[in-house]
Amino acid sequence: RCFHDHALMAGLNWLDNLWDAYDLGIRHGKVSWKALFQDLVSGIRRLNDFPLSDISAAQGDLEHLTVLQLLRIRVLNPNCALLGKGASKVQQFMQKLDTLLLQRIGMCVAGGMFGDLDEDAQHRLGRDIAIVSAAAATLQEPRWWVCFAAHHRIWFDPTSFKVSPIFPGGMGVLEIEDHSKVDPHSVGQRCLLDWEVCLVVSEHDVSLKRLCLHNPRVPSTTRPRELTLEEFPY
Predict the structure, then answer these.
(1) Low-confidence winner among 13-27, 54-68, 135-149, 191-205 (lowest mean pLDDT)
(2) Can you give the residue ranges of every domain in the chain?
(3) DSSP of 67-105
(4) Residue 59, Cβ density class (10 Å: 0-12 exposed, 13-18 middle, ≥19 buried)
(5) I want to staple 136 with a disulfide (CB 3.0 to 4.6 A). Which of 2, 41, 158, 207 is the partner?
(6) Mean pLDDT across the stretch 66-83?
(7) Which domain of life, per UniProt (predicted)?
(8) Rounded Cα–Cα distance for residues 105 and 67 (Å)
């Protein structure tokens, strides 16, 4: 087990390294604060280096950034967003960035396969993809994982960021049973990530719904593989 935000940041860092070769220049004509965002994307300055008034004014431009630009800003500013009531302007900025980033990662994965994904489904898929990417650094075989885009089941390979609607053959897939819950010592602010990961070799044995506390796995002879805190590379 580990904190959800630690695993999430590990996955976002992994994705940022995977996509590192792409051009991150700010070219969108609707971005009013181009200099600010170019400094953030390039790493010349961190978010805490800017006046709060600039951060607040620039928040609306986040919607015009690409997923790669949002991702780079997030991984270069890992400690800016501690959620809670009375969040500062910096925290509000990062909360909006996180929401847009995970939604767009979800959109990248789902592509045009499903036309009925709402923003919550995109966000949840993006979050799962990021954490799966972190877990894949430890569980390297098989390469394919089962993920869910709302009620749609898809197969995801984090090593190449490939998605398939067709069950991959060979070594099978890894399936998640999510037992995560709020950490009682965090006053409801942080979530303890608790995943059991099982190898499933037949498509018929893969659940049709996302496995969680309210939809547990039917007991079988499959042995779960539980990730430990030390195995997440953050």
Answers:
(1) 13-27
(2) 3-213
(3) HHHHHHHHHHSTTS---STT--HHHHHHHHHHHHHHHHH
(4) middle
(5) 158
(6) 84
(7) Eukaryota
(8) 7
Question: Of 84-88, 124-128, 209-213, where does the model show the most confidence?
Answer: 124-128
SS3 164: strand
**Dist CA 31 CA 39 (whole Å):** 14
CA atoms within 13 A on the CB side of 17: 12
User: Three-state DSSP class for 12?
Assistant: helix
- Torsion angle of the four alpha carbons 13, 147, 127, 106, in this order, in degrees rounded to the nearest 10: 90
4-18 helix and 119-135 helix, angle to the nearest 10 degrees: 80
Would strands 195-200 and 225-226 be described as parallel, antiparallel, or unpaired? Answer: antiparallel
Question: How many whole angstroms separate alpha carbon 99 and alpha carbon 97?
Answer: 5
Which 3 state secondary structure label does DSSP give 145?
A: strand
- Per 3-state DSSP, the chain is made up of helix, strand and coil in percentages (nearest 5) of 40, 15, 40
